[in-house]
């Protein structure tokens, strides 16, 4: 993520006790992944392999009332990781009308034997997190694959995260801006909303004729129109964390280009983006193939099947690295585009195992902005590092432990700035060969999965042959300015 609706610089909220992940012999998957910041996001007991989302969406009939109508059929293929009599999905604000498991109707609601369509509710900090509990008869055995179909729907609005920032399925006057980070995917489909559980996706999104629906990956078929509705089909065949999925709807115009090795580059630009915003967006997106080539020289081959952009005219001040197709509101500036592209390696290919490790996403994407600016002859990395240290000094931003910033500080400027500064200081400490070699090793080793700050330190120690405990503590964790600034 690059641009936010609000600056989140307060003191972190103390984490709640994580749910018990369960053990041998348990018959119900845990109602949360155990993340210290979002203990009830994600679920235990299974691994999702594929989401097939068949969605139908009617945007607001009155632009002054930002409410739409969404209905969906989610077909979820998963593998049990323990013996299960029940399992949970995260799903918020939408009503479930039917559930089947391997073609047979299943009870769902508060418990597997309740037989109701009510929700099982747990409280997670400020926001309420809703668990859809599904009964399994017969039970799933560890290792068994199941196909679960959930039919659901309801009225959409403008959901917010624990800080009050818009996220998830955000209804707009002409459609929907769909941006999930960190735990907003549950506002539009039943999901195991844990960045460690990556899956492939298929999207079939039916919208009123004249609207365009854009998702991750590549078009699976030509748009098909019938009775005033058009269905847009997309396939995302690379494993993806749920917070990176999108199904944005609007008055988009699709543009097609190619990147290195004929990589498909698909941009969707809202027809109402105009004037200086359109000029800046057009110039920035034209640089995407060049940006990809440059970053490949540093970090290895671009990790996915496609790239591009979704540029919406909504007034939300937002940019997110939605996988293969980052989303921008209002304008896509050059600095932001290369930031979101950098996330495709750092955050998307390798995702944070828990949200406390988000500096690995944002520190790297910010440092990539510096590398690109130097490549373009705008400013050296050393100059940008010095300016960032000055900003950290001036704004007193050394006090945050960016390796554990707190739930409501995930997008604090300190995470971005101190993260990028730490990376440059590490580069100076161990040298270019070890630094960039370690970065490539990091992506190669953890591609299509997730990892932690401790994993990153271990990779850099391996690449450099040096112990780095003191360095990582000083540059990430200690609430003080490092003693030596390179």
Describe this structure in a few short sentences.
Helix content is 25%, strand content 31%.
Polypeptide structure, described:
- There is one protein chain.
- By secondary structure, this protein is α+β, with helices and mostly antiparallel strands.
- It contains nine helices and 24 strands.
- The chain has helices spanning 275-286, 288-299, 334-345, 359-375, 381-394, 413-430, 432-446, 453-464, 469-477, and strands spanning 46-58, 68-80, 84-90, 95-101, 104-105, 108-109, 120-124, 127-140, 145-156, 168-172, 175-179, 199-208, 212-215, 218-219, 224-226, 229-240, 247-250, 252-258, 264-270, 307-312, 319-320, 327-329, 350-352, 449-451.
- The strands form six sheets. Strands 1, 2, 4, 5, 9, 12, 14, 15 and 16 form a nine-stranded mixed β-sheet that branches. Strands 18-19-20-22-21 form a five-stranded mixed β-sheet, covered by helices on one side. Strands 3, 6, 7 and 8 form a four-stranded antiparallel β-sheet that branches.
- The protein is globular.
- Mean pLDDT is 91; it is low at 3-25 and 110-127.
